[in-house]
Every structure is written in structure tokens, then in C-alpha cells.
């Protein structure tokens, strides 16, 4: 129990392989952190200590054997404790989707993404809290209790992958998978001081995971460092031949991308939309983030971006239409079991005419084509804030907060939702702490499948402006 | 309108104003996109199936950026 707790996922991999720490020691230390994280943030729906320790015992056997034979373990993540949003099929085990609605949500098989992590040797600490059915960007959950911000529990964790953000920030897991339909990975990652990736639509197969709006949904990882995130992405990316909307393109070497710096990269700074509602504090943080990249050899390009406000509206029309179609049978069967706010959101699509939904879908290809040509002919990545406003308090974003609630909720997804509509990859990277000691995040967006470029930028920014350690 | 729809399909809707705001926002956005002649050429709007969208993303992936010899 005296071994030092690794600071990052890659440090944990190294410590486990060298024998500096055993998988069982690491699991015990992680469980202690998970209990503290739970007390502070309510980030877990379940902590599965017995299962974790049993898996760690098996991992130690594998690690000992590979050390004896002088080879690296087959699994890139052998013995590393992770935890995920409770929306991934777990081989028939209970999956809650953040809801207490009494419907059968068990799937006989594990989700492809989490199964790949398991095959790579990763362990699971437990199941993480989330917005009920992923319908919420704040971390509120009236069924299981709100998930709170790791840096200050009076503030929102962000959502819908709320538990992922809080647990990884607290050190209760070395990385986590969430899902992103309007910002649900990037918002909690930003609010909790993490790196979070919404990959290109189709990069990570969604087989076995909860659906919210299948035309838009993506699975995305979050971690404390860009290098850790690259290690996770390396394992989970690539089509599985089951999800028909997962790309079968070859998967690049994301881990190498981290080392390549940003020299020569063109960083686009949008003149319209993204900074329109940004606070002065957020603008200054984005300036500092940009300066770190310029100092490392990147070049600034000022530009205008087309039709972004419209994309947010179109994205919303698709998400709510598809969510209502998916939820309608459950709403009919047991609508009274939904929490009130989520019942409203799940039925909102009833007001959206089918013609509007279809046209929103049909416009996506021409708008994507136009956006990529207009923006990425001028720059390699686009810089925006992840959240244009400071992380809100929990009480100002709760049900009954009044007229300001809709405005705050709209601003939470102001910079993230347009890229869900387009399917473009976007990453959030910590950009310092605000005056209240809460993290701010810079978002970088690139052309389809340019996750390597985003990881280079993220790694450079993290090197230049690391966050202070979070002391629980 | 929303209340009537909800009754028709027996699904509870509690906030018709929010639902109609989203529907209205999307309709306005569609009109704005069509009004912007450079963004959508006539005749290209009804080509999108999910597989088309995936293929379009792949086609737009482009070449590696500077420093990216992967």
C-alpha cells in the first residue's frame, strides 16, 4: 500500500509493467479515491470493489508472467482502473442510463468500446452517474442525485457524462468513456479540468451503447492528459463491422501524434458567433491558450465561420426528434417514472414537424461540405471556448431556477452543439482556472478524422499551461 | 398544437413553449440556410442517407497537416 499513486494513465501503465506497483495495490488505492470522490461529487452509481479486486488479481498474474518472460503485456492497459458512463452494455449486467424507469435495459453483450478496453486489460471501478438518459448538460439527476463539480461541489459537473468528468478529475479512474450528442463529453471535461474528445462521427463504434439521437451520437473519451486520451482512443477507435455507421478507415497512431508539436499549424480564430456570448475572463483565457500555441510555432488565422447558429438549431431539431421517437414507447408505458424535467425533454420532439426533421438531416451534407471548404482551407484547427461562460452554480441551473435557466442551458452548448451537427472532431483542453478556482476549457475543432491534429494541439497546450493539482 | 399531439399519441408533454421554440428555431434556420445562395445549391438537399453522410466525412478527411507524417 506504500507505492506512490501514478499521476496519469500512462504512468500507471509504466508502474504496473515495471512492478513498481501491483494491480491489486493500484486497485485498492483507486477504491479509496473513489470513495472520497463519491462523497464529494456523487460521481458513481455503483462502486464495484469486489469485482475490481478480483480483476486486479488476474491482471497481476498476467503482469508477473510477462515480466518473467521479459515481454510487454498483450493488453496496452493491463491492470489500469477505468470507469464509464452507465450507458454501455456490460454482458447482461444492469445498466441504468441514469434512470430509475423500470424497463429492461440489460443487453446480453458488452458494448464494443468497453469490451475493447477490457480486452486491452483495463479494469472497471464501477458505473458512473450521468444525466437521466443523457438528456441534460448540467449533471443534475433527480433520480440518483446530482453529480457535483470535482473542484467545487457547489457548481455543476456538466453533463451529460457528469460522472466521467468528476471521477477522472478526482483520480477515481484514470480515464472514462462518455457520449457526446450536444457537448456531453466536452462540457463535463471542461468543467472538471480534463481533456475530452468528441471524435468524428463514426470513428468509435456505438454497438451496445445507449442511443439518444443515432444520427448525431458519438462515444468519446476523457482523461487527465492528452497522452492518456490518445492511449484510450488507440484502443477504442475503428469500425467493428456491426455498427453500420462506424467507419472502417484504418486507425492512425494517435500516441505518436502527441510528440509532434504544433510548428506550422494554422490556428483559426473565429470572428463571429463563438465569442459573441463569451465573458471577458473566458476571452482572456482563450488568448492565453492561443499564445502558447503561437509560441510553439503555430500561426494565427482570423476568419469568419458560416451558418453556425443555424447548425445549432438544426442539431437540436434532430436530437429531440430522434430522442422522442426512441422514448415514445417508454413514455407511453411508464412516463410517470421519468423525472419531470427529463420527461419534458424526451417528449419535446412531438412539436417538431417531420419535414423540419428531415430537412435538418438533408442539409447536413451540403453544410458540412461548405463549412469544411470555407474554414479548413484557411486553417488546420479552429479555436473556440468550450464553455463561453464560467461554470454555473448548481442552484442557478436547477429546475425552478426561473427564466434565466433556458439562457444558461443554451449557452452551455453554444460552442459545442454545432460540431455535433457537422460530425466534426472537437477536443477540449484545460485553459487555466477562473477567479473562483474553477477550470476553463479551450475547444479545438478540425476536419473529419483529424484527431491526430487535435491531440498535438492538446498536448502542446497542456505542456505550456498545466492546471494546479486538485487536492481533495 | 403540442398538447393535441401529445394527447393523440398518449405521451405527456409538460412544456409546449420550449418544444415549439425548438421547432420554430429549426424552421427559421432552414429558411436562413436556403436564403443563403452560396451554401446550398438547388437539388442537393435530398441526397442524404446515413451512409452518404459517413462517406462524405471520409471524403473530406484530407491530407495530414504539417508535421504529421503518419
Describe this protein's structure.
The complex is a heterodimer of chains A (472) and B (70). Chain A contains 16 helices and eleven strands. Chain A is an alpha/beta fold and 472 residues long. In chain A, the strands form two sheets. An eight-stranded mixed β-sheet of chain A has the order 4-6-5-10-11-9-7-8, sandwiched between helices. A three-stranded mixed β-sheet of chain A has the order 1-3-2, sandwiched between helices. In chain A, strand 10 and strand 11 form a beta hairpin. In chain A, helix 7 (226-236) runs antiparallel to helix 16 and helix 9 packs across helix 16. The radius of gyration of chain A is 21 Å and the shape is globular. The model of chain A has no long low-confidence stretch (mean pLDDT 94). Chain B is an all-alpha fold. Chain B has three helices and no strands. The longest helix of chain B has 20 residues, at 16-35. The radius of gyration of chain B is 20 Å and the shape is elongated. The chains are: A alpha/beta (472), B mainly alpha (70). At the A-B interface, helix 10, helix 11, helix 12, helix 13 and helix 16 of A face helix 1, helix 2 and helix 3 of B.
Give descriptors for this structure:
heterodimer, A: alpha/beta, eight-stranded mixed beta sheet, 40% helix, globular, B: 70 residues, mainly alpha, elongated
Topology:
The complex is a heterodimer of chains A (472) and B (70).
Chain A: H1 9-18, H2 23-41, E1 44-47, H3 49-69, E2 81-85, H4 112-119, E3 123-128, H5 162-169, E4 175-180, H6 186-191, E5 195-198, E6 218-223, H7 226-236, H8 254-257, E7 266-270, H9 280-295, E8 299-303, H10 308-334, H11 340-347, H12 354-362, H13 364-376, E9 381-385, H14 404-412, H15 417-422, E10 426-433, E11 439-445, H16 451-464
Parallel strand pairs in A: 2-3, 7-8, 7-9
Antiparallel strand pairs in A: 1-3, 4-6, 5-6, 5-10, 9-11, 10-11
Chain B: H1 2-9, H2 16-35, H3 50-59
